[in-house]
User: Fold this.
Amino acid sequence: HSHIDHLGMVPWLASHHNTNLHATELTAAISEMMWYDCHKVSSIERYPLPWDKRDIDIALSNWNTHKFNSPWEQNDWKMELHRAGHIPGAAMLHVDTGSKKILFSGDFDTRDSQLVIGAKPVKSDVLFVEGTYGGRDHPSKEEENLRFIERISEVVQRGGTALVPAFANGRTQDVVMLLHKHLPHLDVHVDGMGKRVARLQMQHPETLRNPSALEAAWSWCRRVSSKSDRKKALNADVIVSTSGMLDGGPSIWYLNRLRHDPKNAVLLTGYQARNTGGRRLLEEKRIPIFSNLTPIDLEIDQYSFSTHAGHSEIVQFAKDCEAEDVVIYHSDPSIARPPLAKALEENGHNVHVPENGISGILE
Assistant:
């Protein structure tokens, strides 16, 4: 899928190994934007990348795109992409070798979101499954949505502006659709790269749960496209803006100007990784703004809008796939992986927990 933590090394792969790339059309379309943005940020923040702009061109020329549920042949193997339920365009890969059927989940979620339909099980002998939320279940989506909507209403009713930092690819659109559905009377402004991502998503309606709902929400909100628009947005009821972890982007600009009025509030809508602005804001009530560690005396709330499967969803998915062998990856080896491995073993699966650098053979 097209989040940079999954695409970030692809230009290096393509340029150094002439790797053929396979994905949905939407993932391929968004990849160009993500790579150029990553290159720009690395230049600004002065951290080295193992690839450059010339490698982006090679990667783009190496894409092979596929529709969901449209098999193709790769030598003697039959391949097929299935909806992963993570973000629009995200895919699970099913491989039929003739002797084994293998499913690679990628980042997936079996629950429907505003944007996409949840992943459906695919009968497989071997399941490679992400275990990001092993040992942890998510709160009810309906209850979390309601908690978010009620908090937005509370901030607006007291005369404040709610700043909603959101990831560009998936979360921005989810949040705007949620606001349009439940609070259509509000003045909502959207800023950041999520605007470009939404346009691409709407050009690929086959990846969306309800294309008309996204189009209606996007027509309804106000898209910030200039410095004057940005100043006007300071008087909005809600500002939805990148970056989702407050590590740059317009959201920092807005926070710097909204922080002086205690009627305003910040509503974080995603995971805040260590050493990010969002994590410091939660733990210290301070954040680096233009290199100055700045105190933020606003109310801060966090909401679980994750589009990763929780522990219970992963266990049920493996059961429904009828997988004999389950390989857990994309998970914390000391916290998430052990309880997930235990639950899967109790369900009768042969569970494998690979370690980096150590090869293994599945018979």
The chain has a mean pLDDT of 97. The two ends are 29 Å apart (CA to CA). The chain has two domains: 4-136+308-352, 141-302. Residues 141-302 form a domain with the Rossmann fold fold (CATH 3.40.50.10890).
